[in-house]
Amino acid sequence: MPNMDPKKNPMPVQEPDVRNKNFNEVALGYTYEVAVNEAQRCLNCKNRPCVEGCPVSIQIPDFIACVAKEDMEGAFEVLNSSTSLPAVCGRVCPQETQCEQRCVRGIKGEPVGIGRLERFVADWHRENNTKKPVVPKQNGHKVAIIGAGPSGLTAAGDLAKLGYKVTVYEALHVAGGVLSYGIPEFRLPKDIVNKEVQNLIDIGVDIETNMVMGKVLTIDELFEMGNEAIFVGSGAGLPRFMNIPGESLNGVYSANEFLTRINLMKAYLPNSKTPIQHAKKTVVVGGGNVAMDAARSAMRLGSDEVYIVYRRGMEELPARNEEIEHAEEEGIIFKTLHNPVEILGDENGNVCGIRCIKMELGEPDESGRRRPIEIPGSEFEIECDSVIMAIGTSPNPLISSTTPGLDTNKRGCLITQDDSGLTTREGVYAGGDAVTGAATVILAMGAGKSAAAAIDEYIKNKS
């Protein structure tokens, strides 16, 4: 009999006043018994609406049915057939707006905890499996992947499973992309990312780090090396600023730099060689997941007060509800319907405050959201010694500028011709933030998956 409890099993977490002082993972994960109980809430619907909401088309009812029967390895096999990064998806994917939003159980109660079950299965496999993965038989074809982030790793995994010799070229000294440098340890532990990457290496994927493509090698040279197709998943690592006075003061960071220093270089550790300011009062500008990550990280570094300044209201915050709730619980102060107009400095060139203006929402703009409008005469100041800009990123132009025939739009994003990810250059595919600008991990993974299928078809038709 199905478990007809209208509410999903809660996720155990660290207490707010404990976790806001450490970088350990906030969510503690389901126990074996709770996972089985939650899986039994699934009705195994005939039309499977949850699968339609998944960007990588995981056969969700199948893996959950395995959990309900306590066949955890079978559940992992279902996941592994669709995603190369299940432990990542289970932690950072916005299930509430995708698979869980379409769950039938959500009509008269709460949806099944699909993401929590995916995390449980991936963790169970990592902790209990002793079998070495089977290396697929090689098909004699080579493909190069630029970028070891979620889209590149997904494409690499799918192509390797089809028998391609895949080499991933990563600019940084470790693989993972935004999973390694962007998402904090308390949301996504790096040993989990490393294990997911190792799983790909174990099935034959080669990963070369410290390879800044466009400098060390070009796309033309990758073709000359025998690669028959190339996937560009280089992300969007170029930070944006507001171009307001004071952005060059000491103590102003892009969220990209701030989080990279913390996540990749472990600046929060006492013996870290990477300098970062441990501010007493921090202001984070922006309202997305990156802003929440930066604000929560700043508090863990010792800030007594951390503000989120966002020009729209709480209802319009683009961050996940879970991240907003966790930030509020941890003591982050939200200054919504406010916008910075100037960062203030002292006589030594250090940040000492930020001047903001109050906003109100007008008519919807081209994005469909109500346009924020300044309220004249409403300016005020917030005292602070650090400001973190988390207002988005753009793709680095290095690859497009060194590749003839590879076109970009006005935002610097690579232009693709269709859902396959085919760019304006034959044999070159792209996906993830390099195409869309900053977006979610799971959408990048979906793009990598689509491109891998298209590359396979392209090479088969050429052969």
Structure, explained:
With 463 residues, this protein is α/β, with parallel strands linked by helices. The chain is built from 17 helices and 16 strands. The protein has helices at residues 16-19, 32-39, 49-52, 60-68, 72-80, 86-92, 114-128, 150-161, 178-181, 190-202, 219-224, 255-263, 289-300, 321-329, 398-401, 433-436, 441-462; strands at 142-146, 165-169, 206-208, 229-232, 238-239, 252-254, 281-285, 305-310, 333-336, 338-345, 351-364, 370-374, 380-383, 386-389, 393-394, 428-430. The strands form 4 sheets. Strands 3-2-1-4-16 form a 5-stranded parallel sheet. Strand 7 (281-285), helix 13 and strand 8 form a beta-alpha-beta unit. The protein starts with 15 loop residues before the first helix and ends with a helix.
Short recap of the structure:
This protein has 463 residues and is an alpha/beta fold. The chain contains 17 helices and 16 strands. The chain is globular and about 65 Å long.
